[in-house]
Structures are given as C-alpha cells and as structure tokens.
Design a protein that fits this description.
This protein has 20 helices and 15 strands. It is of the alpha/beta class. The chain has 3 domains: 145 residues, Rossmann fold (3-Layer(aba) Sandwich), CATH 3.40.50.280; 205 residues, Alpha-Beta Barrel (TIM Barrel); 68 residues, no CATH class. The longest helix has 17 residues. The protein is globular, with a radius of gyration of 23 Å. The two termini are 31 Å apart. The model has no long low-confidence stretch (mean pLDDT 92).
C-alpha cells in the first residue's frame, strides 16, 4: 500500500489534484512488477474503508509524509499495526527526510526512506538485505542503523506516470494534470529543499515529455483540463525548453499549461518576447515565479539572485502576451525588520496595480528546514525543534499553515501578529472580492464575505495592527 495521509486541516483545493510523489512511486513499482495499491487520505472520502479492506493482505505500507500530515500518519500507522502486525511500515517524504533518526525511533515505523524513494523502496520490497540498501535508516534487534545516501535518480530512466493506478474518483476530479519533466534545481536559494539536499537538476528527454502529453491528451477523464509541468524549474535548459514547446506546436499537442520560472530568466537570450509569444501559442496561460521578498538585502541573504526590478519586468512581459504571472512571497526570516516586511508588501501592491490578473501566493511565514544556511540563525535565536513525532503532531495540530508563529523565537514579539496574519490580509484584502471568495479555506460564505471586507479596508489603508478578526477567523476555521 502506498499511502498519502490526510492533512491536519482539509482544504477544498486538495480534492482537485493528485499526489505526484505517490504516483511516481506507484508507477515505478508497477513497472517492476510489484503489485501496488494507492490510498489517498487527502482525496478519497472512503480512504479508511479502503485501508481496512487491504491491510490484512498487505506486506508493506509506505507513507509519503509532510509535517502537517504527521499526526494522521501516526494514527493510520497504528491502525495498520493493530490489524496486521506483520505489515512493515516505511515512512518517506519531506518530514522523515529532514528528521530520519527521530522518525525511525517511533515504535510504529520500521524503515525511513531518505530523499527520492522509487529505487529504494523497490529494493526494500524485493527482499534485498537492508544493510545493503542506500538511502534508508532502519531498526534491527533494538538498534538503529543509518545507511549511506542513495544516488539521485535519473528521470530519463523513470517510467512515465501510469494513470490507471490512480483511483478513478480522484482522476475524475482532477482540475490540474501534473507532468513531471525534470527534478531538482541548479540554483542556490538558502531556504529551498533542493539546495539543502543538493538535488541537482535532472531532466527527462524532450521525446519523453511529448509522449507524456500525448498520453494525457488521450485520456477522456483529462479532456479539457490544463496541465502543470510540475518541475522546480522548467526552463533550466533553454534548448530543451524550446524543443518541447516547438514539439507541442508541431505535433498537435497544444494544451493549456502552466509551470514555474525564475524572474531573471525573462530577458534577451532566454525567455524574450519572441519565445514568450511561442509559449502562449503552445497553450501557456500561467507562469509561477518565486519572488520571495521585496527587500534587496533579504533577497541577497537568501541567495535568490534576483531583485525586485526582475519581478516587475517579468510581470509586464507575461501580461504583454496574455499570460498570468503568479508570485509567491515569504516574510518572517531571521533578522527581517518590520520595514523590510513592508518592502515586500509594497512590491505586492505594485504587482497587483499592474493588473487584477496577477496572482499572489503568501506571504507565508519562513519555514526553518534543518541543513539550510538560515537554520543556525533560528537555533541561535532559541528555536528548539520537537524531539518526537508525537510532539510534531501536537505542535502542528489545528494550524492552518506550517506552524504557529508563536513558536518562532526569531520573529520579534511585536511582529508575530503581523507575520502570522499577513497571508490572510493579502489573500483576502489585496485581490478583488470575487477572487477572495474563491479561496480554498472552508467557511460559511457570509462569514467569509465579512472577513474579506475588513481585509480589503486594511489593505487599502495599509493598517495591520491588532488583527482581532484574523484570530477569530482562524479559530473558527481551525475548529
């Protein structure tokens, strides 16, 4: 069984997507002749019944776990062990990768898979001696053993997604079809999981990408649905990117699509006006940029290698060609001042004034990942990470985002409310009312509208003190 556990709080947007990591694992194992069953607790209303029906005949249960899934993953792991104590449990994903020793010490978990897991899990379930499998930490005879890291996978050697492995009820609800054309990223952003884990950029071939699109276009349940190239950075190799776009146009594979791109790629010699026009012609309707901050000092500290002018330029270029620019931001970094946070809000304001079509994600609170260059600053400020999975589950319970700002000592006391509430004020205040009502957070429409009107006034006045309505709304939605 390959299991995607529920998150601590449900969001409507989860229902219309697919667990890409789980699908990649399933496709690889299936291509090697391993019988697999995908169970998605995020998207299947009957996932628990599915789990109970499969657990008695299951030899292995492999989980993909993010921090906000830890509590639910523990409950499901306990259910599996109680129903079938012979079933071995593997945890992988971002949380176990960052905290492998802590994870494997839990009595419910037999093996932790660190990093990319397709080849590793295949070796485990094929019966290879655990001491000879790279990329795992495991228990044996009451002792914990940590093997060396596994080499990064070559996506060109990986099978394309096998959509028939995904439960049909999920496929029919998918609103955005994922196509993974590469893994990793060559850039050095200090906050990013790819830089921390040294996940260098590795592509599929142009032919594989076009074949994947042919398969997607042939599926009736995907008819009329857009595609997202789910890469960290689709445009690393411009010759490859151009060949893919040309191939889409030439081979009748034009389809609405979106992907990620760096703001400083929008320039002569890379994504210029001619190529931007070709992107539009191939079906591109949205480009997602990691803007992160409006403060040059913080962008330099993050080693983002862009500046606010690149962000504005990228927005104008995309808008000229009828492509929606989408930008993600963060605040609450170690050492960030209130005035620097306001620089980010000012950049957001400039973007939104360019066009109501521009989309803003965040600004989310900075997340401290072990191994990042900023993590030591968090520790020096007094950050103490939880020491068990149960402590992580308790800490993240009923939180709408990653963790409560109250637990972040590097954010000054007088800035905590500001940092915590800002994503909501931008989401509901900076955009139009219709857009804000479309938010994925579940709440009664009338209450949501009242909150939106207050946020709209706050954004207009740039007055964010005493966010009483945010705290009330957060408590209501959390419950």
């Amino acid at each position: 069984m390959l299991i995607n556990p529920p998150f601590n709080i449900a969001k409507e947007s989860y229902d219309t997507s697919v667990s890409v990591g789980l699908l990649s694992l399933a496709s690889f194992l299936d291509s090697r002749g391993v019988p697999v069953q995908m169970i998605d607790g995020v998207r299947q209303a009957d996932f628990f019944e599915q789990l109970k029906s499969q657990v008695s005949k299951c030899d292995w249960a492999a989980f993909s776990v993010m921090t906000m899934q830890v509590g639910q993953a523990l409950e499901i792991s306990r259910t599996i062990k109680e129903a079938n104590h012979n079933c071995k449990i593997i945890w992988g994903g971002s949380h176990p990768t960052f905290f492998p020793e802590q994870t494997v010490k839990n009595e419910l978990i037999d093996i932790v898979c660190v990093g990319e897991g397709e080849e590793t899990i295949y070796e485990i379930v094929s019966g290879k001696n655990l001491k000879d499998i790279d990329g795992i930490i495991y228990k044996e005879g009451g002792n914990v053993f940590a093997n060396k890291s596994h080499a990064l996978h070559d996506p060109a050697q990986m099978p394309l997604f096998n959509w028939e492995l995904v439960p049909r009820q999920i496929l029919e609800r998918v609103a955005l079809v994922p196509s993974l054309t590469s893994r990793g990223c060559p850039h050095r952003c200090t906050f990013c999981i790819n830089a921390i884990l040294k996940n260098r950029w590795r592509p599929r071939t142009v032919e594989q990408v076009l074949e994947d699109l042919r398969i997607i276009k042939s599926k009736k349940y995907f008819h009329g649905k857009p595609v997202r190239f789910w890469d960290e950075n689709f445009f690393v190799d411009m010759a490859r990117a151009r060949a893919i776009i040309d191939g889409m146009i030439k081979n009748d594979l034009v389809i609405p699509w979106e992907t990620t791109v760096r703001a400083n790629y929008i320039r002569e010699g890379m994504i210029d006006d001619d190529f931007m026009a070709k992107l539009k012609l191939s079906g591109c309707y949205l480009l997602s940029f990691g803007a992160e901050s409006g403060c040059p000092r913080l962008l330099k500290k993050m080693k983002k290698d862009i500046d606010p002018a690149d962000v504005i330029n990228s927005a104008k270029a995309a808008l000229r060609h009828g492509i929606i620019p989408q930008y993600s931001f963060m605040i609450g970094l170690p050492g960030e001042t209130r005035s620097e946070m306001m620089e980010t809000l000012n950049l957001i304001d400039k973007l939104i004034k360019l066009s109501p079509k521009i989309q803003i994600l965040g600004p989310q609170a900075f997340r401290p990942y072990p191994g990042s260059e900023l993590y030591d600053e968090c520790v020096d400020s007094g950050w103490k990470e939880p020491q068990t999975l149960e402590e992580w589950a308790d800490l993240s319970a009923n939180e709408l985002s990653y963790l409560s700002i109250e637990n972040f000592p590097w954010v000054k006391k007088e800035d905590k409310d500001f940092v915590e509430s800002m994503e909501a004020f931008v989401r509901f205040g900076a955009h139009g009312i219709k857009s804000a009502l479309g938010s994925s957070v579940k709440a009664q429409k009338l209450l949501k509208l009242g909150f939106i009107l207050i946020c709209q006034l706050r954004w207009k006045l740039k007055f964010f003190a005493w966010p009483v309505e945010y705290k009330l709304a957060k408590k209501f939605v959390s419950q």
